[in-house]
Amino acid sequence: MIVHQVLSGAGPYDAVTRQALAWRERFTAWGWEGADWAPFIDPRAGLGRRVRDLRGLAPTPADTLLLHYSAYAPRLRALLDTPARKVLLSHNVTPARWFWDHEPQVALQCELGRRQLPEFAARCDAVAGVSAFNAAELGTDRVVPLLLDLPEASPDAAVPAGPPTVLFVGRLAPHKRQDEIIRAFALLRRHRVPDARLVLVGEPLHEAYHERLRGLADTLVPGAVTFERSLDDGELAARYRAAHAFVCLSEHEGFCIPILEAFAHGVPVVARPRGAVAETAGDAALLLGGSLDAIAELLHLAIVDAELRATLRARGRARLDAYRPTIAQDAMRALLEA
User: Fold this and answer.
1) Maximum CA pair distance of the chain?
2) Residue 309, domain extent
């Protein structure tokens, strides 16, 4: 089989790019040919020939195109007219409303991306989502989970040394709600854990938005919030190991890999059940859509209640079984071979 993967764009910290590269390794192991393509390749990614300029792709009837749909990409539309078989895998596009006040150009791309998704889906031979939440937007129940390489979860994860640390990993962007994380964290410090620390890891939407969040942190909890970006895998793993709790207050998630990474490192998770968050977390996280005061209280319990921590760690390890690589591989193979 010849499978060409097509991305909306390729970047060094982009989860969809990482997924495509992981799938390429699997396709090669299965004896499948093909290459990976994108209309834009961030030069910082250091991808070399692993991702090629889309202008060089000339599909034939013998080819299968796997379109990883995650953003508006007008140059991908021409592929719909080619003779190749076409499969769309939706990673979701964030609703535009979260960006209009911060980055109108990104908002416009999101709006166009969501509008063109039904057209792409209708013109592809098969469609699937990386979560049931994403699949439902396509009008299908076909799911191909993400292919994840998570560390083996330890049943005896020790409580980290140092001051109580709350962690979130995700792009600094309005829909990720780092602003509300900072406000909930301020309540946690004021009423429950005065020496707590907050670590926010992620690339910013732009520097102005980064400075806005930093200004909020300096106003509410001066000196207690650390912003980090461009971490390699080892550095990121160290942040999970040092965390006492992981918090996710995102308003929109098409999957949410960091929740599973937290489970793998034995970190209790407190999350807002929006988008695919509840689907990803199952019964292994403390899910609450209520007030920030209630979120702060759950964070306090996740930090200090040893019995609750043990229960959440056990449930987190069990939840990872639903995302074993073999499950994703079987789903992908069935989708493409069919």
Assistant:
1) 64
2) 165-322
Q: Nearest Cα to 210, choosing from 179, 167, 183, 247? A: 179
Cα angle 317-282-233, degrees, rounded to a multiple of 5? 50
The amino acid at residue 68 is H
Does 176 lie in the same domain as 112?
Answer: no
Q: If you write DSSP's letter for every residue of 153-175 in order, what string do you get? A: PPTTPPPPSSS-EEEEES-B-GG
pLDDT (average), residues 96-107: 96
Tell me the three state secondary structure of residue 198. strand
CATH number at residue 74: 3.40.50
The verdict on residue 338 lying in a domain is: no
pLDDT at 157: 65
- Give the residue from 311, 255, 248 showing the smallest Cα distance to 284: 311
Q: What is the pLDDT of residues 44-70, one digit of tens each?
A: 767 777 899 999 999 999 999 999 999
Beta bridge partners of 199: 167, 226
Number of domains in the chain: 2
Q: Are residues 35 and 65 in the same domain?
A: yes
Report field, pTM of the whole predicted structure over 0.90: yes
What are the tens digits of pLDDT across the range 211-270?
Answer: 999 999 999 999 999 999 999 999 999 999 999 999 999 999 999 999 999 999 999 999
DSSP string, 24-54: HHHHHHTT-B--EEES-B-GGG--TTSSEEG
How far, in Å, CA of 165 to CA of 159, rounded? 11
By the 10 Å C-beta count (0-12 exposed, 13-18 middle, 19+ buried), 162 is classed as exposed
Q: Which pLDDT score is estimated for 6? A: 97
Please provide the DSSP assignment of 206-275 as one string. -HHHHHHHHHHHHHHSTT-EEEE-S--HHHHHHHHHT-SEEEE--S--SS-HHHHHHHHTT--EEE---T
The span from the CA of 109 to the CA of 36, in Å, is 23
